[in-house]
Amino acid sequence: MPRPIEALVHSGALARNLARARAGAPDAQVWAVVKANAYGHGIERAYDGLRGADGFALLDLAEAERIRALGWRGPVLLLEGCFEPRDLELCSRLNLWHAVHQERQIDWLAGHKTQHGHHVFLKMNSGMNRLGFAGAAYRSAWARLNALPQVEQITLMTHFSDADGPRGIAHQVAAFEAATADLPGERSLANSAGVLRHGGVRSDWVRAGILSYGSAPDFPEHDIAHWGLEPAMTLRSRVLATQQLAAGDTVGYGSSYTAAGPMRIGIVACGYADGYPRHAGTGSPVLVDGMRTATVGRVSMDMLAIDLTALPASGVDSIVTLWGHGPGGSMLPIDEVAQAAGTIGYELMCALAPRVPVTAVD
């Protein structure tokens, strides 16, 4: 039989999370952000759950081709735009909208021969300091683009750096409004945290990223239950073996865990080669047959250990939910596992290893 680890992608949860984004921004159109292979869920597996979006936003041309191959005829946005001049040929052929965040991308457009005008998203650096034109340079970039016959439509865009935290978005909204005053065109401002925490900000297009996949962008201040979200990915396995420990016995490489008294542990078919974080130490939450317990010792390449002392009915072949939906309606949000590992849910989703079988379910 195959190794018992598997991941499930829940189409219904994706659709309901997307509906939550619409509820948070009822007057806006919604991008389903599927960069990084739909945050590790797989574009093809996530497509059915997200096809209710108004468009798909992603990073590279290969992902855009995959969306078009699935039959999507609506808007597709390249969030980082083109990386070289010839990328514009595929943008023309596949009717891709694309971000413009630096002068050379405008130069490429000026030299591009096309019969169809391009829809560009002009990105402003309003304080994130990654990509985009700052201040007066933004208006100059808009003027250059607006004068090009290759450009049919310009949408104004920025990205929030602190929508998930106490600093908030007011300083960036003010910078954006100052730079875009009197400029025509739609606006795209809000990311997941912007939608959930700052729904009043004007945005014609919102970008539903991490919320679509059932992770809270501002965890631990708020969890997914607070925002009405559901896990879109489940990682589960089974107990391979059990061990009875006495006081003083140690567990795993480096003997990083020492039993304080008699205890029973289970060995689970999941390790860092499957995408479970090695830096998740003792005490990381798991569900066993839907009941909460925790890991003990160091995560190995192919296995990890869990405490079964308080679960006498669980043992070999018990279902272990590493994150997501468990038996009997139980649930372990990925954010809690990520917190125990000192990271964020985004990273765990994207780190799911290719060797883990993944199935799309309702």
Entry summary:
This protein has 362 residues and is α/β, with parallel strands linked by helices.
Written description of the protein model:
There is one protein chain. The protein has 362 residues and is of the alpha/beta class. It has two domains: 11-217, Alanine racemase (TIM Barrel); 233-361, Lyase, Ornithine Decarboxylase, Chain A, domain 1, CATH 2.40.37. It has twelve helices and 19 strands. An eight-stranded parallel sheet has the order 8-7-6-5-4-3-2-9. A hairpin with a 7-residue loop joins strand 15 (291-296) and strand 16 (304-307). The longest helix is centred in the N-terminal third of the chain and has 14 residues, at 11-24.
Q: Which structural class do the helices and strands define?
A: alpha/beta
Gyration radius from CA atoms, angstroms:
23 Å
What is the domain total for the residues? 2
CATH superfamily of the largest domain, by name, is Alanine racemase
Q: What is the CATH T-level topology of the largest domain?
A: TIM Barrel
* Helix content bin: 25-40%
Main sheet specs: 8 strands, parallel
Q: How does CATH name the architecture of the largest domain?
A: Alpha-Beta Barrel
Quote the beta fraction.
25-35%
Termini Cα gap: 25 Å
Strand ordering within the main sheet: 8-7-6-5-4-3-2-9
The rough form would be described as elongated
Mean pLDDT: 97
Low-confidence stretches: none
